[in-house]
Amino acid sequence: MIVFNTLFNFYRKYRLHSKFTPQPSETCYSGVSILKPLMGVDPNLFTNLETFFNMNYPKYELLFCVEEDTDPAIMLVKSLMEKYPKIDAKLFIGATIVGVNPKINNMHHAYEAAVYDFVLISDSGIRMKEDTLQDMMNHMTDKIALVHQMPFSADRSGFAAALEKIYFGTAQSRIYLTADCIKINCHTGMSALMRKSVLDEEGGLKTFGCYLAEDFFIAKSFTDRGWKIRICSQPAMQNSGICDIHSFQSRLTRSYEWWKFIGLFLVA
């Protein structure tokens, strides 16, 4: 156990404590299309989305995806687009049924309209730091097709929030980093940066609409073709405005089922 803890702490420092190096001003930046699938509004949604308008990265577009034209998230997105007119942001309303996965159905139009070589799929509850996108792009080297973030939690008040942060900072992170270290596909799709060309070679995002665990199968398709995936040094800051014991327990249940699915898939 002592040896395992030592190796785990070494790998954690190696993966999550990389020193951020700002790029020279003359650097040629690759563009990133950011897909934000939305459904409904929670108390933190506005501030979460606003962090994407304030990122310190010179070349990106925001593509917001809403399934229903009555969704209250539409008004919130439009207010942010008016507040930050210099940011390239578009709103897509209406899903296309390409499979059983509602998230991919919601994002289909936006993905087809994406103009840049890299695509970042980011869930509604994610909060970004100004340099997070740059950090993810720094890890996107020539042999890598997918950069993802280890799940963590932003600071919030209340017992449930504290419990959630302890879990993601201890048990979950240990499992996640250990799986990454021994090259088990641990990719979760809450915040994932991908090479669009590699995804398009598989037929695009719609190809994975037949899976509910689209994140696992996207990563598997990349690694099966010889591409590598990486965790960047900044974790995904989950900042949902709904945080209680019941919802936390439900997340643990889904997490358990997800890891059980991976185990059964690997055995098969």
From TrEMBL:
Gene Ontology BP, a term: glucosylceramide biosynthetic process
GO MF annotation list: ceramide glucosyltransferase activity
Keyword line: Glycosyltransferase, Golgi apparatus, Lipid biosynthesis, Lipid metabolism, Membrane, Transferase, Transmembrane, Transmembrane helix
Coiled coil segments of this chain: none
Pfam families named in the record: Glyco_transf_21
Gene Ontology cellular component terms for the protein in this record: Golgi membrane
Subcellular location: Golgi apparatus membrane
Superkingdom of the organism of origin: Eukaryota
Catalytic activity: UDP-alpha-D-xylose + an N-acylsphing-4-enine = a beta-D-xylosyl-(1<->1')-N-acylsphing-4-enine + UDP + H(+); N-(9Z-octadecenoyl)-sphing-4-enine + UDP-alpha-D-xylose = beta-D-xylosyl-(1<->1')-N-(9Z-octadecenoyl)-sphing-4-enine + UDP + H(+)
InterPro entries assigned: Ceramide_glucosylTrfase, Nucleotide-diphossugar_trans
Membrane topology per record: Multi-pass membrane protein
Signal peptide: none
Primary site of residence: Golgi
EC number: 2.4.1.80
Pathway the protein contributes to: Lipid metabolism; sphingolipid metabolism; Sphingolipid metabolism
Protein family according to the UniProt entry: Belongs to the glycosyltransferase 2 family.
Name of the protein this chain belongs to: ceramide glucosyltransferase
Taxonomic lineage from the root: Eukaryota, Metazoa, Ecdysozoa, Arthropoda, Hexapoda
